[in-house]
Give the backbone structure.
Amino acid sequence: MSPKPFSHAPGDSPAPRLPSSRPAGAVKICIVGGGFGGLYCALALHQRLRQSPRPISITLVEPRDRFHFTPLLYELLTQELAPWEIAPAYRDLLQHTNLDLRQDWAEHIDLAQQTVTLRHGEPLAYDYLVMALGSQMRPPATPGSQAHTLPFVTLQDAERLERRLADLEARSTVRVVVAGAGPSGVELACKLSDRLGPRGQITVVDRRGEILRSYPQRLQRAAARALAKRGVEVYLDAAIEAVDAGGLTFGYAGQPRYCSADLILWTVGTVPRSWPGSAPLQPTPFGQCPVRPTLQLLDHPNVFVLGDMAAMPAPGRNSQRDPSRNRAPTTAQAAYQAGPAVAYNLLALIANRPLRPFVYNHLGDMLTLGQGEAVVCGFGLCITGRLGGVSRRWAYWLRLPTHAHRWRVLKHWLGFKG
Ligand SMILES: Cc1cc2nc3c(=O)[nH]c(=O)nc-3n(C[C@H](O)[C@H](O)[C@H](O)COP(=O)(O)OP(=O)(O)OC[C@H]3O[C@@H](n4cnc5c(N)ncnc54)[C@H](O)[C@@H]3O)c2cc1C
């Protein structure tokens, strides 16, 4: 396959603001972070504005110029999808709304003064605040890992990986080591194996004793089969000790082992982003912000926190493998559900109506396992292979943001021009 460069790169420099029409005396809602939690909350609020007894103005603060539909990021590597499909520009997504988009970083929140300090722009005053900053890569602690590995979290990471692959593909053999056998590691290993074909030698290394630790066993088995079918070597119970320019050292079966690599991908987990400025509350041991069942901040009912950065309660969550978990997972699925739930509660709060506790509904698990293939498990069923690939693609299509964007993507998939 001849790699094509991605057609655009996301920047994080400030962009011109979208024109906003702010009615005088409007209730000011500020949403910080435009990912699955923040953007879907903003869109749900916009849809329900007519339910509000008072005029409302909504400001979205987001440093990126493009929304990232992360579950489909892997498809860029096999050119199954293009960047515009999975990373649409916020300007396009919000063009028919009155949302005021600030492409900027929130650097400090003053809960007493109700202001958000931005890196570039003027401070924003709010009546109601929504915080949805997501996660970031766990800071690499293994010697050499920062200098000699690539992450895979953002569109920019995917573009950097694409450029590296384009350089390596001239070789007869390309040795790739993926550190981490969680969902990202497994999905990357399968996609890269399909992209590189016979010249690819893919190895996955993980310190734990199983792949996809928190996933159902049927899904683990399907993933193990997909890896084996592609000849991916998997080392479990293997702690990576050091990384250098030529490969990595890990302990395996009591012995140090060196694995040479042309490319090392680091997928050993993410951590929730911390509160900008001084945190209002002690974070949980996992680094999340504690919230009420309504996703309001304790002691600050006009502030909502959701998505990966919030310890969103999910009592009675079905988890046979880890009964101690009573939090919603740090997934797009959970943040996507929490966005509209926060929008509902915000409008209820403004209208002086009762709020609802957030109820996380686990709809199942999906992973891509190579080009056109996936495993989809939910409601007692597990679909794999090409059928799984098609099911996953359509399940995600339904969740792309805005009707207009879904429609553009659908027309493209069905081969309509214009
Ligand atoms: C490669 C990859 C694949 C994934 N695949 C899946 C999957 O298949 N299924 C699944 O359920 N989940 C998946 N996830 C996890 C999923 O992306 C997250 O759980 C989800 O995005 C969390 O939503 P969020 O709104 O909390 O954060 P995000 O969607 O990450 O959004 C946070 C936003 O806040 C912005 N931000 C950060 N700091 C600031 C600041 N100081 N000021 C203003 N804005 C800020 C960021 O730019 C970002 O846009 C994947 C993640 C990755 C990286």
